[in-house]
Specification:
Length: 395
Amino acid sequence: MLEVLTIFTRLGLTSFGGPTAHLGYFRDEFVEKRKWMTDEEYADLVALCQFMPGPASSQVGMAIGLKRAGYAGMLAAWVGFTMPSVIALVLFALGVGQLGSLADAGWLAGLKAAAVAVVAQAVLGMSKSIVTDGKRAAIALAAFILVLVVPSPFTQVGVIVLGMVAGVVLFGLGEKQQAAGGAGTRVRTQSRTQSRTVGAVALAAFAGLLVALPALAGMMRSTGMDIFDSFYRAGALVFGGGHVVLPLLEQATVPTGLVDHDTFLAGYGAAQAVPGPLFTFASYLGASASGINWLWGAILATVAIFLPAALLVIGVMPFWDQLRQHRLASAALAGANAAVVGILAAALYNPVFTAGITGPITMAIAAAAFVALHMWKLPPWVVVVAAAVVGGVVV
């Protein structure tokens, strides 16, 4: 657990660039560096978490912690990856710091450029190990085109489903090992087995809270219960995570008078300048909410928006680990994995490249970061810090 906590805390302090970049950081740390899983196993997790509602990168992190060190490891992964940005945004809500005014600072431009390199390296590495033949390349290309042409979180879910169907059609029942990995024998990694009973209870709790919380909020009529209800539903019903959750949070806080519009926008600007998941914007809103103590509001909002993701990971993972060993599911996952590569390639262009590359200087920073990662094998956190320093000096 301490190993997981240490690694994810470092990632939580250095993972700038949004959910797609986070997946790149995770792959470099757990597939390339530590060999905790293969590219195929990692792509399986990404496909699963893209398919579920909630913050995809946070769910991937929770799943990695769960597989590595059980439920304590899952909690450690969430705390390490999430708390740095929670603390920064709560401090900003209290007026300590000026992160909002730094949203267009040079160091942030350097970080966004570094994110381009991180995602590019992840796409390149995953394509080499997963897209190993013409069939998989066709699935990845189709996913890439669909996600670019029809940009929507629901498109990503649909593309994964189509990739699974294509995997079954193209690979069938007779290519178990090849469909599952595409490049040889899987590496057996240390992994904890989760209880299917606990998983079923977690799924029941996920659905039960979704139904019960609005009724409880109506009966209790307290600011704390209203916050927990609103933020739980936002975390449970949004696909795609990140910026997609913002309209739900705005509707839950501004019209109801919990925060005013200017406060909402200021926090959104600050959220762009901190590492980790954008869902921690909820922590800022909870700390800024009227009618409740700032600390209690921040705790309720943070727990509520991430709780659905945690319940889904606990609920689905035991059945997923069993299902992915089935021959038909193995073929479907081969198609889903290829589709994930296409989705990440599309995200490399939009929003990572379009937001990170604003001119020749940021292009140069991104190119240098890619060489440092891919050829010189420097640790990502070193590259990220260097890009921030260079960006602060020259942008």
